[in-house]
Amino acid sequence: MKFSSFGKKFTKNSGILQLMDDLGKALASDKPINMLGGGNPAVIRSVNTVFQDTLIKIANDRHALESMANYSTPQGDAKFIATLVDFFNRHYGWGLTADNIVLTNGSQNGFFYLFNLFAGHFDDGEKAILLPLASEYVGYADTHIDDTHFLSIPPIIEEINHDGEEGFFKYRVDFDKLENLPELTNGKIGAICCSRPTNPTGNVLTDKEMARLDRLAKKYNIPLIIDNAYGAPFPNIIHTQATLNWDTQTILCFSLSKIGLPGTRTGIIVANSDVVRAVSAMNAIVNLSPVRFGATIATPLFADDSIVRLSNEHIRPFYAKQAQFAIKLLKEQFCDLPVKIHKPEGAIFLWVWFENFPISTTKLYEILKEKGTLIIPSEHFFLGIDTDNYPHAHECIRLSIAQDDDTLIKGIATIGEVVRKIYQQG
Known about the structure:
This protein is α/β, with parallel strands linked by helices and 426 residues long. It contains 14 helices and 16 strands. Strand 8 (189-195), helix 9 (207-219) and strand 9 form a beta-alpha-beta unit. It is globular.
Protein backbone atom coordinates (compact mmCIF):
# COMPACT_ATOMS: atom_id res chain seq x y z
CA MET A 1 0.00 0.00 0.00
CA LYS A 2 1.47 3.36 -1.04
CA PHE A 3 0.95 6.61 0.84
CA SER A 4 1.04 10.12 -0.59
CA SER A 5 3.70 12.65 0.40
CA PHE A 6 1.22 13.90 3.00
CA GLY A 7 0.75 10.36 4.29
CA LYS A 8 4.48 9.67 4.46
CA LYS A 9 5.11 12.87 6.42
CA PHE A 10 2.40 12.23 9.00
CA THR A 11 3.16 8.55 9.54
CA LYS A 12 6.93 8.83 9.98
CA ASN A 13 8.53 8.71 13.42
CA SER A 14 8.43 12.06 15.21
CA GLY A 15 9.11 13.48 18.63
CA ILE A 16 5.44 13.95 19.48
CA LEU A 17 4.54 10.46 18.20
CA GLN A 18 7.28 8.93 20.35
CA LEU A 19 6.13 10.93 23.37
CA MET A 20 2.46 9.96 23.05
CA ASP A 21 3.20 6.34 22.11
CA ASP A 22 5.50 5.78 25.09
CA LEU A 23 3.01 7.52 27.34
CA GLY A 24 0.18 5.25 26.19
CA LYS A 25 2.27 2.09 26.54
CA ALA A 26 3.42 3.09 30.01
CA LEU A 27 -0.12 3.72 31.18
CA ALA A 28 -1.22 0.33 29.81
CA SER A 29 1.76 -1.52 31.29
CA ASP A 30 1.42 -3.78 34.32
CA LYS A 31 4.95 -2.79 35.39
CA PRO A 32 5.50 0.19 37.71
CA ILE A 33 6.48 3.28 35.72
CA ASN A 34 7.86 6.54 37.06
CA MET A 35 5.93 8.80 34.70
CA LEU A 36 8.08 11.92 34.46
CA GLY A 37 7.50 12.26 30.72
CA GLY A 38 4.34 13.32 28.93
CA GLY A 39 2.23 16.41 29.38
CA ASN A 40 -0.79 15.18 31.32
CA PRO A 41 -1.81 17.66 34.01
CA ALA A 42 -2.00 16.57 37.62
CA VAL A 43 -5.13 15.13 39.15
CA ILE A 44 -6.01 17.79 41.73
CA ARG A 45 -8.94 16.52 43.78
CA SER A 46 -10.31 19.91 44.78
CA VAL A 47 -10.41 20.92 41.10
CA ASN A 48 -11.94 17.64 39.97
CA THR A 49 -14.67 18.02 42.57
CA VAL A 50 -15.75 21.26 40.89
CA PHE A 51 -15.75 19.58 37.49
CA GLN A 52 -17.78 16.67 38.84
CA ASP A 53 -20.36 18.97 40.43
CA THR A 54 -20.63 20.89 37.15
CA LEU A 55 -21.14 17.65 35.20
CA ILE A 56 -23.89 16.56 37.57
CA LYS A 57 -25.73 19.83 37.02
CA ILE A 58 -25.34 19.43 33.25
CA ALA A 59 -26.62 15.84 33.39
CA ASN A 60 -29.70 17.07 35.21
CA ASP A 61 -30.31 19.82 32.66
CA ARG A 62 -32.16 18.33 29.68
CA HIS A 63 -31.53 21.42 27.54
CA ALA A 64 -27.77 21.25 28.12
CA LEU A 65 -27.66 17.62 26.98
CA GLU A 66 -29.78 18.41 23.93
CA SER A 67 -27.37 21.21 23.05
CA MET A 68 -24.37 18.87 23.19
CA ALA A 69 -26.16 16.41 20.92
CA ASN A 70 -26.08 18.91 18.02
CA TYR A 71 -23.22 20.24 15.92
CA SER A 72 -22.00 23.71 16.74
CA THR A 73 -21.11 26.12 13.96
CA PRO A 74 -17.56 25.67 12.60
CA GLN A 75 -16.54 28.57 14.85
CA GLY A 76 -17.54 26.62 17.95
CA ASP A 77 -20.17 26.61 20.67
CA ALA A 78 -21.86 30.03 20.51
CA LYS A 79 -22.76 30.17 24.21
CA PHE A 80 -19.20 29.46 25.30
CA ILE A 81 -17.80 32.00 22.84
CA ALA A 82 -20.19 34.67 24.17
CA THR A 83 -19.14 33.77 27.72
CA LEU A 84 -15.46 34.04 26.76
CA VAL A 85 -16.03 37.45 25.16
CA ASP A 86 -17.56 38.71 28.41
CA PHE A 87 -14.83 37.03 30.47
CA PHE A 88 -11.87 38.55 28.62
CA ASN A 89 -13.47 42.00 28.35
CA ARG A 90 -14.32 41.91 32.06
CA HIS A 91 -10.74 41.09 33.06
CA TYR A 92 -8.73 42.89 30.38
CA GLY A 93 -10.96 45.41 28.61
CA TRP A 94 -9.91 44.25 25.14
CA GLY A 95 -13.21 45.13 23.48
CA LEU A 96 -13.64 41.67 21.94
CA THR A 97 -16.72 40.56 20.03
CA ALA A 98 -17.81 37.08 19.00
CA ASP A 99 -15.89 37.68 15.76
CA ASN A 100 -12.61 37.53 17.72
CA ILE A 101 -12.85 33.99 19.14
CA VAL A 102 -12.82 30.56 17.51
CA LEU A 103 -12.66 27.14 19.17
CA THR A 104 -10.62 24.15 18.01
CA ASN A 105 -10.37 20.50 19.01
CA GLY A 106 -7.44 21.16 21.32
CA SER A 107 -4.63 23.67 20.95
CA GLN A 108 -2.56 21.16 18.95
CA ASN A 109 -5.33 21.27 16.33
CA GLY A 110 -5.25 25.07 16.48
CA PHE A 111 -1.51 25.28 15.91
CA PHE A 112 -1.79 22.91 12.96
CA TYR A 113 -4.16 25.43 11.40
CA LEU A 114 -2.17 28.55 12.32
CA PHE A 115 1.25 27.27 11.26
CA ASN A 116 -0.09 26.17 7.90
CA LEU A 117 -1.90 29.49 7.42
CA PHE A 118 1.23 31.56 7.99
CA ALA A 119 4.09 29.34 6.78
CA GLY A 120 4.78 27.17 3.76
CA HIS A 121 4.40 27.92 0.07
CA PHE A 122 3.26 31.45 -0.87
CA ASP A 123 2.99 33.20 -4.22
CA ASP A 124 6.15 35.14 -3.38
CA GLY A 125 8.12 32.13 -2.12
CA GLU A 126 8.59 30.14 1.07
CA LYS A 127 7.79 31.53 4.52
CA ALA A 128 8.66 30.15 7.98
CA ILE A 129 7.45 30.49 11.55
CA LEU A 130 10.04 32.35 13.61
CA LEU A 131 10.56 30.91 17.10
CA PRO A 132 12.51 33.63 18.92
CA LEU A 133 13.65 31.44 21.81
CA ALA A 134 14.61 27.78 21.46
CA SER A 135 13.84 25.39 22.98
CA GLU A 136 10.12 25.23 22.18
CA TYR A 137 7.20 22.83 22.37
CA VAL A 138 7.93 19.49 20.67
CA GLY A 139 4.34 19.29 19.36
CA TYR A 140 4.98 22.15 16.93
CA ALA A 141 7.69 20.31 15.04
CA ASP A 142 5.72 18.26 12.51
CA THR A 143 2.58 20.35 12.08
CA HIS A 144 3.30 21.63 8.55
CA ILE A 145 1.61 19.65 5.80
CA ASP A 146 4.72 19.80 3.64
CA ASP A 147 8.33 20.03 4.75
CA THR A 148 9.13 21.86 7.99
CA HIS A 149 9.01 25.63 8.12
CA PHE A 150 10.60 26.85 11.35
CA LEU A 151 13.47 29.17 12.09
CA SER A 152 14.68 29.31 15.69
CA ILE A 153 17.21 31.41 17.56
CA PRO A 154 19.47 29.67 20.11
CA PRO A 155 19.08 31.24 23.54
CA ILE A 156 21.47 33.32 25.56
CA ILE A 157 22.15 31.10 28.59
CA GLU A 158 22.46 33.10 31.77
CA GLU A 159 23.58 31.28 34.91
CA ILE A 160 21.72 32.68 37.91
CA ASN A 161 20.82 32.14 41.53
CA HIS A 162 17.28 31.17 42.48
CA ASP A 163 15.93 31.65 46.00
CA GLY A 164 19.51 32.25 47.11
CA GLU A 165 20.82 29.00 45.61
CA GLU A 166 23.31 28.41 42.82
CA GLY A 167 22.90 25.83 40.08
CA PHE A 168 20.20 27.53 38.04
CA PHE A 169 20.09 29.17 34.61
CA LYS A 170 17.65 31.09 32.45
CA TYR A 171 17.21 31.38 28.69
CA ARG A 172 16.93 34.88 27.27
CA VAL A 173 16.10 36.01 23.73
CA ASP A 174 19.14 36.95 21.66
CA PHE A 175 17.68 40.13 20.18
CA ASP A 176 20.95 41.09 18.46
CA LYS A 177 20.57 38.03 16.23
CA LEU A 178 16.79 38.16 16.08
CA GLU A 179 16.41 41.77 14.96
CA ASN A 180 19.07 41.37 12.27
CA LEU A 181 17.73 38.20 10.67
CA PRO A 182 17.84 38.53 6.87
CA GLU A 183 14.72 36.33 6.69
CA LEU A 184 12.74 39.11 8.39
CA THR A 185 13.84 41.84 6.02
CA ASN A 186 13.39 39.72 2.89
CA GLY A 187 9.84 38.62 3.75
CA LYS A 188 10.62 34.97 4.52
CA ILE A 189 8.94 35.00 7.95
CA GLY A 190 5.17 34.49 8.04
CA ALA A 191 4.65 34.81 11.82
CA ILE A 192 6.47 34.96 15.14
CA CYS A 193 5.47 32.38 17.77
CA CYS A 194 6.40 31.85 21.41
CA SER A 195 4.94 29.96 24.36
CA ARG A 196 4.62 31.79 27.68
CA PRO A 197 5.32 30.06 30.05
CA THR A 198 7.42 27.92 27.77
CA ASN A 199 6.98 24.22 27.37
CA PRO A 200 9.52 22.62 28.00
CA THR A 201 11.65 24.97 30.11
CA GLY A 202 9.19 26.85 32.32
CA ASN A 203 10.75 30.08 31.06
CA VAL A 204 8.53 33.18 31.09
CA LEU A 205 9.47 35.84 28.57
CA THR A 206 9.59 39.19 30.37
CA ASP A 207 7.20 42.03 29.55
CA LYS A 208 10.13 43.87 27.93
CA GLU A 209 10.94 40.87 25.74
CA MET A 210 7.28 40.56 24.74
CA ALA A 211 7.13 44.27 23.90
CA ARG A 212 10.17 43.94 21.61
CA LEU A 213 8.61 40.93 19.88
CA ASP A 214 5.38 42.89 19.45
CA ARG A 215 7.25 45.82 17.87
CA LEU A 216 9.08 43.42 15.56
CA ALA A 217 5.81 41.81 14.43
CA LYS A 218 4.25 45.20 13.73
CA LYS A 219 7.35 46.42 11.89
CA TYR A 220 7.12 43.54 9.41
CA ASN A 221 3.31 43.30 9.47
CA ILE A 222 3.19 39.68 10.61
CA PRO A 223 1.20 38.13 13.48
CA LEU A 224 2.64 37.45 16.92
CA ILE A 225 1.27 34.06 18.04
CA ILE A 226 1.39 33.44 21.79
CA ASP A 227 0.84 29.92 23.13
CA ASN A 228 -0.75 30.66 26.50
CA ALA A 229 -1.64 27.08 27.46
CA TYR A 230 -0.07 27.47 30.91
CA GLY A 231 -0.43 31.22 31.36
CA ALA A 232 -2.80 33.84 32.74
CA PRO A 233 -5.63 34.00 33.55
CA PHE A 234 -6.14 30.21 33.38
CA PRO A 235 -4.57 27.89 34.44
CA ASN A 236 -2.21 30.68 35.58
CA ILE A 237 0.68 28.31 36.31
CA ILE A 238 3.06 31.24 36.35
CA HIS A 239 5.27 32.28 39.26
CA THR A 240 6.63 35.62 38.11
CA GLN A 241 5.36 38.97 36.87
CA ALA A 242 3.83 38.77 33.40
CA THR A 243 1.30 41.05 31.69
CA LEU A 244 -1.10 39.57 29.13
CA ASN A 245 -1.82 41.86 26.17
CA TRP A 246 -3.84 41.50 22.97
CA ASP A 247 -4.44 43.52 19.83
CA THR A 248 -5.44 42.66 16.28
CA GLN A 249 -1.80 41.85 15.36
CA THR A 250 -1.68 39.27 18.18
CA ILE A 251 -3.06 35.74 18.19
CA LEU A 252 -3.57 34.33 21.70
CA CYS A 253 -4.01 30.58 22.10
CA PHE A 254 -5.56 29.05 25.22
CA SER A 255 -6.56 25.53 26.23
CA LEU A 256 -8.74 23.71 28.75
CA SER A 257 -6.11 20.95 29.02
CA LYS A 258 -3.96 22.28 31.85
CA ILE A 259 -6.87 23.24 34.07
CA GLY A 260 -7.39 19.48 34.21
CA LEU A 261 -9.58 18.74 31.17
CA PRO A 262 -7.14 17.47 28.49
CA GLY A 263 -9.58 14.80 27.28
CA THR A 264 -12.18 17.38 26.26
CA ARG A 265 -9.79 18.61 23.51
CA THR A 266 -10.83 22.27 23.65
CA GLY A 267 -8.60 25.01 22.27
CA ILE A 268 -9.42 28.71 22.24
CA ILE A 269 -8.00 31.22 19.75
CA VAL A 270 -8.38 34.97 20.25
CA ALA A 271 -7.51 36.83 17.06
CA ASN A 272 -8.69 39.34 14.50
CA SER A 273 -11.80 38.46 12.53
CA ASP A 274 -9.87 37.42 9.40
CA VAL A 275 -7.99 34.73 11.33
CA VAL A 276 -11.19 33.61 13.08
CA ARG A 277 -12.96 33.18 9.73
CA ALA A 278 -9.99 31.27 8.30
CA VAL A 279 -9.77 28.86 11.24
CA SER A 280 -13.54 28.38 11.20
CA ALA A 281 -13.35 27.41 7.53
CA MET A 282 -10.60 24.90 8.30
CA ASN A 283 -12.68 23.52 11.19
CA ALA A 284 -15.53 22.88 8.78
CA ILE A 285 -13.34 20.90 6.38
CA VAL A 286 -11.29 18.94 8.91
CA ASN A 287 -13.75 18.44 11.79
CA LEU A 288 -17.16 19.75 10.66
CA SER A 289 -17.26 21.58 13.99
CA PRO A 290 -15.39 21.68 17.32
CA VAL A 291 -16.39 19.31 20.12
CA ARG A 292 -18.97 20.89 22.45
CA PHE A 293 -18.37 18.81 25.57
CA GLY A 294 -15.52 20.92 26.97
CA ALA A 295 -17.36 24.13 26.13
CA THR A 296 -20.46 22.93 27.98
CA ILE A 297 -18.47 22.12 31.15
CA ALA A 298 -16.42 25.33 31.00
CA THR A 299 -19.19 27.86 30.28
CA PRO A 300 -20.52 28.18 33.86
CA LEU A 301 -16.96 28.22 35.26
CA PHE A 302 -16.06 31.21 33.10
CA ALA A 303 -19.38 32.94 33.61
CA ASP A 304 -18.92 33.28 37.37
CA ASP A 305 -15.08 33.42 37.40
CA SER A 306 -14.78 30.03 39.11
CA ILE A 307 -12.03 29.28 36.62
CA VAL A 308 -9.94 32.14 38.03
CA ARG A 309 -10.44 30.99 41.61
CA LEU A 310 -9.54 27.40 40.72
CA SER A 311 -6.40 28.60 38.94
CA ASN A 312 -5.20 30.96 41.63
CA GLU A 313 -6.17 29.01 44.74
CA HIS A 314 -5.65 25.39 43.68
CA ILE A 315 -3.83 24.83 40.36
CA ARG A 316 -0.98 27.34 40.59
CA PRO A 317 -0.16 26.59 44.27
CA PHE A 318 -0.09 22.85 43.54
CA TYR A 319 2.55 23.20 40.82
CA ALA A 320 4.57 25.73 42.82
CA LYS A 321 4.79 23.19 45.65
CA GLN A 322 5.68 20.34 43.28
CA ALA A 323 8.40 22.41 41.60
CA GLN A 324 9.95 23.22 44.97
CA PHE A 325 9.84 19.56 46.02
CA ALA A 326 11.32 18.28 42.74
CA ILE A 327 14.13 20.86 42.88
CA LYS A 328 15.00 19.69 46.40
CA LEU A 329 15.22 16.09 45.14
CA LEU A 330 17.34 17.08 42.14
CA LYS A 331 19.69 19.12 44.32
CA GLU A 332 20.18 16.12 46.61
CA GLN A 333 21.05 13.88 43.64
CA PHE A 334 23.31 16.27 41.73
CA CYS A 335 24.91 18.55 44.34
CA ASP A 336 28.46 17.63 43.21
CA LEU A 337 27.81 17.27 39.46
CA PRO A 338 27.69 19.90 36.65
CA VAL A 339 23.88 19.77 36.55
CA LYS A 340 21.77 22.94 36.36
CA ILE A 341 18.02 23.60 36.47
CA HIS A 342 16.22 26.22 34.42
CA LYS A 343 14.63 28.80 36.72
CA PRO A 344 11.09 27.48 37.37
CA GLU A 345 8.93 30.43 36.33
CA GLY A 346 5.84 28.49 35.25
CA ALA A 347 4.23 25.51 33.47
CA ILE A 348 4.30 21.92 34.73
CA PHE A 349 7.87 20.85 33.93
CA LEU A 350 11.46 21.27 35.03
CA TRP A 351 14.20 21.59 32.41
CA VAL A 352 17.46 20.04 33.59
CA TRP A 353 20.83 20.62 31.91
CA PHE A 354 23.60 17.99 32.20
CA GLU A 355 26.51 20.13 31.13
CA ASN A 356 29.19 18.34 29.07
CA PHE A 357 27.27 15.08 29.38
CA PRO A 358 29.21 12.11 27.93
CA ILE A 359 26.20 10.79 25.98
CA SER A 360 23.16 12.39 24.41
CA THR A 361 20.03 12.64 26.51
CA THR A 362 18.27 10.71 23.73
CA LYS A 363 20.45 7.73 24.73
CA LEU A 364 19.81 8.56 28.38
CA TYR A 365 16.08 8.42 27.64
CA GLU A 366 16.41 4.85 26.34
CA ILE A 367 18.44 3.76 29.38
CA LEU A 368 15.94 5.28 31.80
CA LYS A 369 12.99 3.77 29.93
CA GLU A 370 14.48 0.31 30.46
CA LYS A 371 14.67 1.13 34.16
CA GLY A 372 11.02 2.15 34.36
CA THR A 373 11.44 5.92 34.35
CA LEU A 374 10.17 8.10 31.52
CA ILE A 375 11.59 11.55 30.77
CA ILE A 376 11.70 13.53 27.51
CA PRO A 377 15.10 14.19 25.88
CA SER A 378 15.89 17.67 24.64
CA GLU A 379 16.84 17.20 21.00
CA HIS A 380 13.30 17.32 19.58
CA PHE A 381 12.57 20.62 21.34
CA PHE A 382 15.22 22.55 19.38
CA LEU A 383 13.22 22.67 16.16
CA GLY A 384 14.48 25.02 13.48
CA ILE A 385 18.09 24.63 14.68
CA ASP A 386 20.91 22.48 13.31
CA THR A 387 21.26 20.35 16.44
CA ASP A 388 24.25 18.47 14.98
CA ASN A 389 26.29 21.61 15.60
CA TYR A 390 24.68 22.65 18.88
CA PRO A 391 25.80 20.38 21.77
CA HIS A 392 23.47 22.02 24.30
CA ALA A 393 20.50 20.57 22.39
CA HIS A 394 21.65 17.07 23.44
CA GLU A 395 22.32 17.81 27.11
CA CYS A 396 18.88 18.56 28.63
CA ILE A 397 15.79 16.68 29.72
CA ARG A 398 12.21 17.68 30.50
CA LEU A 399 10.68 16.36 33.71
CA SER A 400 6.98 16.50 34.51
CA ILE A 401 6.21 17.71 38.04
CA ALA A 402 2.53 16.79 37.71
CA GLN A 403 3.05 13.46 39.44
CA ASP A 404 2.62 12.46 43.08
CA ASP A 405 5.51 12.79 45.52
CA ASP A 406 6.33 9.07 45.51
CA THR A 407 6.74 9.04 41.72
CA LEU A 408 8.99 12.10 41.87
CA ILE A 409 11.12 10.53 44.61
CA LYS A 410 11.57 7.21 42.81
CA GLY A 411 11.96 8.71 39.32
CA ILE A 412 14.52 11.35 40.27
CA ALA A 413 16.47 8.80 42.34
CA THR A 414 16.70 6.57 39.26
CA ILE A 415 17.81 9.48 37.10
CA GLY A 416 20.42 10.41 39.70
CA GLU A 417 21.81 6.88 39.87
CA VAL A 418 22.08 6.52 36.09
CA VAL A 419 23.42 10.02 35.40
CA ARG A 420 26.06 9.80 38.13
CA LYS A 421 27.32 6.51 36.71
CA ILE A 422 27.51 7.94 33.19
CA TYR A 423 29.46 11.00 34.36
CA GLN A 424 31.87 8.78 36.30
CA GLN A 425 32.45 6.52 33.30
CA GLY A 426 33.07 9.58 31.13
